[in-house]
Amino acid sequence: METRLKLAIQKSGRLHDDSLNLLKDCGIDLKNGINKLKTEADNFPLEVFFLRDDDIPQYVEDSVADIGIVGENVIYEKNKKVTVSEKLGFGKCRLSVAVGRNEPYSGCQFLANKKIATTYPVLVAKYLKEQKVDAEIHEISGSVEIAPGIGLADAIVDLVSSGSTLFMNGLKEVETIMHSEAVLIRQSKLGLAQQQILEKLLFRIRSVRKARHTKYILLNAPNGKLQEIISLLPGMKSPTVLPLAEPGWSSVHSVVNENDFWEIIEKLKEAGEQGILVVPIEKMIL
Ligand code: PRT
Ligand code: ZN
To answer: How far apart are CA 146 and CA 166, in angstroms?
Structure first.
């Protein structure tokens, strides 16, 4: 039987769609049946398990799954023996301490002898130990943000992304314990065949992620301005310059990183460029 790599992803929740989209962008088509416990890919040696995110590190540690996609917050809370192979750039959030909006918070000593509600008791205990603060940790399983309002705790530690949950519950964020994003984890004892499939998958993931952060731009310029324009465009190696049918004009093509994109466009406009075409890149093989 053909060797397949077993991947565990979240069954439903915040990481589910982005995990499936990543596979899709990697050109991996899953058979129908994502409502089941597992499915397989049609065109890549991959089997996909759908699980609760909390269970994924354990399944990977136990080699039931070879690899998994899960938030860093879950890995470090569960403290399992798994290796992080790649950051995936989605599911970004932070684990933060929050207190009532009107509390006179001036530093983490405020938490001394207070009750802290959280679903992350391991990470909170580690943080309090590092900060040399003695506090009481109340582990609860959900709706942490309502704990101060109902008198269950003086502070909470929870995941925050936009901050609106804290705001709506009259809380303010006062410390960040860790930043987290979805990562690809692997078990420690992968066989050679699985290792090779993982390398192929990682190669595709990196190409997709590079492309997501990069744009392809095309513009036409009079030859007299080419040097100035080329100096503004980094490109993968150097921009491509092609002659246009109209004498004295060229077409310039280049690849621009998302972070520098607007700055470069502004400079090109200052240099007199107008007809700039920007297109997304599907994959980048470097
Ligand atoms: O059912 P299962 O156990 O699989 O799912 P779950 O309910 O435990 O997890 P889920 O789907 O809520 O989150 C999965 C992962 O997404 C987390 O482990 C994080 O790595 C990541 N993630 C990113 C988040 C958030 N952002 C996030 N904002 N997980 C939870 N939240 C919650 C937070 O707990 C709080 O209730 O969203 C609320 C705050 O959001 P804002 O935007 O109001 O700040
Ligand atoms: Zn969960």
So the answer is: 9
Nearest Cα to Cα of residue 175 among 128, 134, 142? 128
pLDDT by residue, tens only, the chain of 286 residues: 789 999 999 999 999 999 999 999 999 999 876 568 999 999 999 999 999 999 999 999 999 999 999 999 999 999 999 999 999 999 999 999 999 999 999 999 999 999 999 999 999 999 999 999 999 999 999 999 999 999 999 999 999 999 999 999 999 999 999 999 999 999 998 999 999 999 999 999 999 999 988 999 999 989 999 899 888 887 667 789 999 999 999 999 999 988 888 899 899 888 878 788 999 998 888 7
The answer, yes or no, to whether any atom of ligand 1 lies below 6 A from the CB of 91, is yes
HEC letters along 110-167? HHCCCEEEECCHHHHHHHHHHHCCCCEEEECCCCHHHCCCCCCCCEEEEEECCCHHHH
Ligand 1 atom closest to the Cα of residue 168 is 43
The b/e string for 140-178 (b: 16+ C-beta within 10 A; e otherwise) is: eeeebbbbbeeeebbbbbbbbeeeebbeebebbebbebb
Q: Which residues contact 135 (CB under 8 A, 6 or more apart)?
A: 111, 112, 113, 114, 115, 116, 128, 155
Q: Is ligand 1 within 6 A of the CB of residue 54?
A: yes
**164 CA closest ligand 1 atom index:** 43
* CA separation for the pair 134, 43 (Å, rounded): 54
